[in-house]
Amino acid sequence: MGLGHHGxxxxxxxxxxxxxxxxxxxxxxxxxxxxxxLNSLGLALHGLGRSRExxxxxxxxxxxxxxxxxxxxxxxxxxxVARSLIALGDDSDxxxxxxxARTVFAEIGDRYNQARASLELxxxxxxxxxxxxxRRILSAALGVMVDLDAKYEQARIHEQLCAVATAMRTDExxxxxxxxxxxxxxxxxxxxxxxxxxxxxxx
Length: 203
Known about the structure:
Serine Threonine Protein Phosphatase 5, Tetratricopeptide repeat
């Protein structure tokens, strides 16, 4: 239920569902279920703009995941922590999280999540004033997401490529990326499309 709310951007309802899930898993002794729900709760909190609180929940998850051999889950946690740190403007510890995640995803052949980690790395490079390197990383990640038909993640990458184009003062390219992001969000039923449309119209 929580995932259903999280996908379209209904983060408030998702938060409630994931908190209930954590309690149910704890009562049943399902440690891996608790870890998964903590990660999902962190994603919902991040979506609500509560990134510091999201990190607090993410950091509770890896111990149970690693103990059960859940390498992929632990790597996802590193990506999520990196994403929230970037949102907070705290880039100091981001690269170690992304490097750990990308290494694991490469080892297990998870192209989707390796590209997700690259999206966060591209954001980091943009924040560091390296738009050309950010464009290279993000364009490669976009190619993977197009191959996998992952429309929501394509939209996120186009948003970042819009920011890159703006930093490089190529306004026409920035608008094209923003228009494509809106189209992709709409195709997934995400209300984030409305936010992008408002940016495009300046309202």
